[in-house]
């Protein structure tokens, strides 16, 4: 993950605030610079354009989510399947509280961009790295790169769709639904015993 100076971090912080306010599609670099108290020239000295700034903002948001999930995991010393459940719940909770930002995280940078070449994915994003490490721990060597990519895209699509339904108030968050989805996810990867463990764990976990 790229390191930025204080001005760069300020720009990223204001960008995240603007994404919450107007959505990433309507983000104006001129307006952003004004709200950050600087010229557009100063902004462009740190970021080549909107795409680079959005990538930096996505990495920052992803790092916050990854740190929150890791803090919960550290308190519980979870098994691999418990890690997947905890990570998913942190993201779904974020959707409920911060729809615009989560919509941006999943939509602005399609998951396909994170995969480079055919041998291994890019793990530079803390959230992506945590997700992939969790999947690796869960399925081990039984899932090759292409299968891993397929499972990751399916999981991301489900999380975004379910998260947006929750955020819009169309449906409430239900542990049973999430448990069933995690079970189906594990079964598709051939981890039937893990799927049963996930289902039992999450259905019985207190609300």
UniProtKB/TrEMBL annotation:
HTH tetR-type domain ranges (all copies): 5-65
CDD domains the record matches: HTH_XRE
Alphabetized UniProt keyword annotations: DNA-binding, Transcription, Transcription regulation
A Pfam family that the UniProt record links to this protein: TetR_N
Gene3D superfamilies according to UniProt: Tetracycline Repressor, domain 2 (1.10.357.10)
GO MF term set: DNA-binding transcription factor activity; transcription cis-regulatory region binding
Record-annotated DNA-binding residue ranges: 28-47
Keyword hit for Disulfide bond: no
PANTHER family according to UniProt: HTH-TYPE TRANSCRIPTIONAL REGULATOR BETI (PTHR30055:SF234), HTH-TYPE TRANSCRIPTIONAL REGULATOR RUTR (PTHR30055)
Entry protein name: Transcriptional regulator, TetR/AcrR family
Lineage: Bacteria, Bacillati, Actinomycetota, Actinomycetes, Propionibacteriales
């Amino acid at each position: 993950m790229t390191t930025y100076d204080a001005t760069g971090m300020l720009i990223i912080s204001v960008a995240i605030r603007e994404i919450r306010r107007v959505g990433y599609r309507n983000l104006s670099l001129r307006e952003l610079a004004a709200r950050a108290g600087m010229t557009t020239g100063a902004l462009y000295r740190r970021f080549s354009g909107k795409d680079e700034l959005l990538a930096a903002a996505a990495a920052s948001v992803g790092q916050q989510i990854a740190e929150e999930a890791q803090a919960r995991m550290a308190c519980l010393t979870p098994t691999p399947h418990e890690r997947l459940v905890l990570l998913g719940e942190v993201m779904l909770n974020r959707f409920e509280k911060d729809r615009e930002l989560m919509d941006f995280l999943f939509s602005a940078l399609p998951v396909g961009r994170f995969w480079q070449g055919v041998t291994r994915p890019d793990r530079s994003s803390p959230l992506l790295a945590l997700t992939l490490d969790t999947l690796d721990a869960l399925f081990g060597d039984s899932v090759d790169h292409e299968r891993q990519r397929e499972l990751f895209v399916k999981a991301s699509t489900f999380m975004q769709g379910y998260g947006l339904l929750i955020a819009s108030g169309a449906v409430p968050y239900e542990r049973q639904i999430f448990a069933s989805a995690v079970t189906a996810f594990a079964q598709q990867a051939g981890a039937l015993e893990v799927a049963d463990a996930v289902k039992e764990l999450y259905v019985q976990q207190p609300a």
